[in-house]
Amino acid sequence: MLSVVARAGTVSPYLRAACLAVAGPLSAVSPAAVVKKDTVLLDANKPLLCGHCARTGPTVSSRLNAVAGVRFAHTDIRVPDFSVYRRPEVMDPKKSAQDSGDARKVFSYLMTGSTAVLGVYAAKTVVTQFISSMSASADVLALSKIEIKLSVIPEGKNMTFKWRGKPLFVRHRTEKEIATEASVNLSELRDPQHDKDRVTNPKWVIVIGVCTHLGCVPIANAGEYGGYYCPCHGSHYDASGRIRKGPAPLNLEVPYYEFPDDETVIVG
Ligand code: FES
Questions:
Q1: Which residue in 7, 175, 206, 265 is a FRET match for 114, CA 20 to 30 A apart?
Q2: How does pLDDT run across 111-130, given as a tens digit for each residue?
Q3: 233 is a catalytic site residue
Q4: pLDDT of residue 17
Q5: In ligand 1, which atom is closest to the CA atom of 218?
């Protein structure tokens, strides 16, 4: 757009040649029509074109077939100078702009590409910041995990921890319990699941201590199967946390956990 406006300034002097020119404030028409008399007699049958020139005074010109419309050449209009915005390669009007076309295209492509890359990067940053502002804060994330030292839990015992507002059972099983739970026939189970699919290390059973019936907290090392017993309605779980008797429909839930070393487990 700026280029079009700038070029208009270059061609504006030639516009006078393409119109029916009459006297303007700064330039007179052809002297062939200048009448220097105190009194100018006008023929009402001839069309007239009148103007006023700053140098020659009132000017009248006539033609036999003059048209009604008159286009004034306003050569006094100041066209803004956009030279500072123009590229030096196209400043010379006598030089073809095509000579520098390739170089200017490279510059244009470079600027367009850089702007696009910066725009995409800025958009990605804004979106990332916006989404991350909705995620949990660092203190909340820290609470989402719990690290437990396994050495504090003796063999055959179960300890309860609080994790994400729920009780978490960590059970250190004996060799006898491990052998017993591994040999259970899956056809006897209401929610069939092999013991090896519920533990990472057979010595440790880690389950969420919430009864799958109505959400009571079972009692460890109790019930007919020696695992967990829910006194609310009498659900019995074995030492793998599987439901064996009572109204509960599912096994105790196993959360995600990992052992960074032999003495530690991280849940969550
Ligand atoms: S809530 Fe545990 S048996 Fe009903």
A1: 7
A2: 999 999 999 999 999 999 99
A3: yes
A4: 42
A5: 2
